[in-house]
Amino acid sequence: MPSGADIIRQIKERIEEVDPREVHDLIEAGPNGTVVVDVREQHEFEEAHLPGAKHVPRGHLESRIETAAPDKSKRVILYCQSGNRSALAADTMQNLLGYEDVASMTGGITLWKDRGYDVDVPRALSADQRSRYSRHLLIPEIGLEGQMKLLDAKVLLLGAGGLGSPIALYLAAAGVGTLGIVDDDVVDLSNLQRQVAHSEDRLGMPKVDSAEIAIKEINGDVNVVKYETRLDASNIMEIIEGYDVIVDGVDNFPTRYLLNDATVRLQIPVVSASILGFDGQLSVFHPYEGPCYRCLYPTPPPAELAPSCGANGVLGVLPGVMGLLQAVEVIKLVTGAGEPLTGRLLLYEALGATFTELKVRRDPECPICSRDPDSISDDEMGVFPDYEAFCAASG
Ligand SMILES: [Zn+2]
């Protein structure tokens, strides 16, 4: 009775073995029809594998190899950890499955690494993350790839108020890796009617701190970056640079113009919403892909219609509706799923329960987005009639 070692020796005599150097040169040379297959177990493959290698565990060889290597006349190189499992698999493919040109790499990935050749280290979710985001992983439009994008994403929220609260909570729950929050206000009792990230026991606390507590309670992995300040011309470029998407819930026109000009210059998409009474508006301003805020509003609205000139009433639930529509747009922009609301203005009227969509186009004469981003100077950003005079004029 031959030993296991004898059998492997016999099998290695009747199959072809190739040196890692040959496989390395082949991979370096680029695609040429040869398929490199890792026959180890899932966890071994996930740890590290040869660049571009396909994965068919030896236990599933017969049922899955034809998907990885459909053409039986083409060359297939198998490898494992040390060269034994791949030799056995090569023998099976050659003598039972009818592959014409199969080889096993000697020494496996161990020898490959000893030679100093590169390996791919794929990223994987932890067991906790797989469980936490399992409902995302089940939708093909998000899936593992989309979840990885969300985990890598940096999203900046302007304001931790009515709109910012639900956005922060849901984006944290969805696994957005970094949430920046700009807000210089403290939690007040009159906020709690709609600003659901805050609570009675945090009255008087800076909103950025209160929002951070709420975010961390939902998802401790989120990196919260707090800016307890007001966005203005002196700090805007420093704060917004490096973010992938900006969520605009600011309630005043000067900041909106400033934000628009800075984001066009840095080419960062802005998901913008505004609310008043029972009415909400939503759009995505994606620089150079659709109109910018100035294309839509070349001049500010009449002062008496400007919501930020004083306290205005709003249905408490309305910022929840609009904020969550913003959160959906953020996830679409980050993952590439669906059609973002670029070039479209969505109007929601809560009393009539109606949604209306208006097409909005880029203005070829737009003072900002008709030009090259690098030509937009600091002096031009946010230029807009004096706002105090503007509000005073409304009486
Ligand atoms: Zn424009």
Q: What is the beta-strand fraction?
A: 15-25%
Order of helices and strands: HEHEHEHEHEHHHHEHEHEHEHEEHHEEH
Mean pLDDT: 92
In DSSP terms (H or I, runs of 4 or more residues), the helix count works out at 16
Q: Main sheet: which strands, in order across?
A: 8-7-6-9-10-11-12-13
Give unreliable regions as ranges: none
| Count of strand segments | 13
Radius of gyration: 29 Å
Report the oligomer. single chain
Q: Give me the secondary-structure category.
A: alpha/beta
Overall form: elongated
Which percent range fits the helix content? Answer: 25-40%
What distance lies between the first and last C-alpha atoms, to the nearest angstrom? Answer: 103 Å
Q: Mind summarizing the main beta sheet?
A: 8 strands, mixed
- Which small-molecule species are bound to the chains here? zinc ion
Description:
The protein is an alpha/beta fold and 395 residues long. Helix content is 36%, strand content 16%. The chain is built from 16 helices and 13 strands. The strands form two sheets. An eight-stranded mixed beta sheet has the order 8-7-6-9-10-11-12-13, with helices on both faces. The protein has a five-stranded parallel beta sheet with strand order 1-5-4-2-3. A hairpin with a 4-residue loop joins strand 12 and strand 13. The longest helix is centred in the last third of the chain and has 18 residues, at 318-335. It is elongated and about 95 Å long. The termini are far apart. Zinc ion (ZN) binds at residues 291-292, 294-295, 363, 366, 368-369. Residues 291-292, 294-295, 363, 366, 368-369 line the site of zinc ion.
